[in-house]
What does this fold into?
Amino acid sequence: MKFNYAAILGVISAITLSPAADAYLYKDPGYVERNVRSIQKNDVIGQSHQYRDQQGWMYVDQVANGATQGFYQAGNWLKLHNRNFKMSIGELEFAFNPSKLDCTQGMSFNFTVGDDTVASFKPNCDDLLNASITYPVEYYFDLIPEVIKPKVELPLDPLGLLKVGVKFGAGIEAGAEFTVGGVVGGHGNEEPFEVDGVRRPDYLYAAVEPYVSGLVSSSAYGSFGHGISEAGVKGKLNLLKVKGKGYVEAGIRRVVQDEQVIEQGFLELKVSTKLTGGDGKIQAYCKKLWGLLQFNVDVMKWDPLYTRETVLYEYASPVWEAL
Amino acid sequence: MKKITIIAIFVIAVSAFLVLKDSDSKPSVQVTYTASESSQPMHKDNHEYGYLVEIHSAVLSEKGTAITFSDLSWQMYFKPKTEGASDLVAILTNIQFTSDNKVQEMPTQLPFYMTYDDGQFTKLNLLGLGEQHTLSVLPRVLDLMSYSLSAALTFEDAQGVKTFRYTQKDNAVSRTRINTASNPEREEEEQWQLTLNDNGSILVGIRELNYHNQQVWQQGGQHYDVVQSVFVRPIDFSSFDYIGWNNNQNATVSTAKLEAKQVYDITDENLLSHLTELKSSLDTDLAAQLGKYLLANQDQNEIKSLLMNHVRLNSALIYALQKAQTPQAEQMLSDLMSDEELGQQVRQKIVMALGRFENATNIAFSSLQTVADNVENTALSNMAMLSIGTMNRFSPMQSQQVAGFLNTKLSDPAQLPTAILAIANSKNPELVEKLPNYLHHSDTQVRNNTIKSLAHKTEYQDQVIASLVQTPHVTTIDSFTRVYKQANYKLSESNVDRLQALYHEQNNPLIKKRLAVILDI
It folds into this structure.
């Protein structure tokens, strides 16, 4: 947040003289994005889509009441043939209290893939004195275990020993870049917080940029040996590449008014998204027994989305406000 | 006329096949096909039974040639669990399955529970056998061996729900289907006959079952005949030990995966381009083959050099080693992990790979443990702890080690918040049961991670709500709301009351908003 020192003085002088009542600042827009992109599919395939959402909130109060808390999360899910799979979630639990030595106690960046928390980073206040840290994480994940791969299956006999089918899997590339930084000084903090003689940051900023891409693959199978090598499906469906971004800032400073020290705070929350890709198709073709599955030529397909970047939500406190 | 020809061809083919099979077979039970009254074993009064089951299945083209055929047979023995009980303990042995003349791997034995009551086999418990396993046809075979003269029976087989009414004349039981669903795509014909023993006093009086099913499948230009027959006849009882079986003991019976794998021709010259292909295809077969190629042709230094010189292929390289799934791959990943020169990003990927390596050994575990215990690199250490939790699901053999390790971390205040998330990853019920102890911890982050890990389960709702109410905090209440909204249960009335009381006490606007969502205000 870039402030002109003179502007700050102007603002301070405009504030009334009454001592601040218990006040707080917050913004809670909830879900700023909730979107589904449905896959065009053959009738025998159940509901299939790629879903994404982003949400966040920020709260600033006096340090005695907990100082600042915040949250941002971007989540991605894949629904294939009626079954839901969590792809990835990038999440920030924001906590900043300048009156504590451990000013970032409670702050954590978490990265989840499927059912697992894969990474959890906790920044250290001492590393954020006019400095920032970045934690990138990224890898490939075989999203759907073999035993729960969605299937379209046709048993040919009553006992089910002779089956032809098509099963779907998903490979994803998922990751997130987490950044956190702190700023000391330059914002009219007249009574900076110091713990054990060391000044704590005036404000903290954090950004979380989770992304996911990948594809749906399919393979034909039969419960018998013959004819397997002649695959009945081909092609891949590329998933939409989704990159979310949550940016937050929050700060608390102390100014002197009428010989009283009052706390003031500000917050910022900005959420944006970048989408690209999402093309391809999976086709079934008649090769001996797979014709019995009644697919027409296209099993699943969609057309690419041209790259678009959108700011979904943006708010920044115009001035430091009394808490 | 055509159908009779088809059946005749089928029977001839099968008989010929059986003759061939017997002539070159491994030692197996001698099956003698004599007149049907020959094998009436002496059941005596101890209700011990043996049956031979044979299933022949085939798909025939329009011309009658077999496109595919399979033969599945087993010997089945069962006896009452305790004297006089209708609960039975049973076992399949000598299980043989060939598909298109290729012998398929089957377990040597399959134990299971069932009940026999007035003509019907019911309450089958396959002790956790995977649904995809071939032997999951057993319930349907037992349905074929069942009948009732007092009521119609409804079964579900692979092709739908069918209801039958049974009639008996002398020793022969026959059945008629009474809910015929019309199937425009196919014509179906079925013959079923159960022959009973003369002696009506024994529990299971089956002397013979003969079942045939033929279906004609037509679509577009394609025409197939699917034929299946099941023969069941008694054999002498062969005793087996029963000391109690656990409900999951067939879960480890592996299911053969019959699928084609594309074979890639990987060479030194095209190695990098295949790795680049892996980046966009994420194909697990390609990954596995690349991994095996790397292990066969490169040593640790060469792989390290690849990693250092081709940063954009790092994920692909590590993923290839992960998917290779061999002890050598596991060792290579562990060795690479200990090389700090590879840098944080590569080591992070290896941490993720080892947690997801299927059936890893102690090598992977120790490697992750060393990283997790190194508190100087907290980012990597936390990731390793989380990966150890995940390892519990991908490598069940390491369960005990994982549990021991995570238990220790619960006593370390610095690592406790992450240990809780790692326990949630593990899904180990004994570890998860310890989590409620942390619902009242003084550290908000500990409470928050615990709430996130327990809030989706109804059995912990009382304890979770108690924690929220006792120490209301915007972060924990927000987390709970998020998880609860996606969960499958509703809060009990008393918990709703507690939250309503909290709602009225609270002044924090965010807490009030979240409670309003939960309470539907």
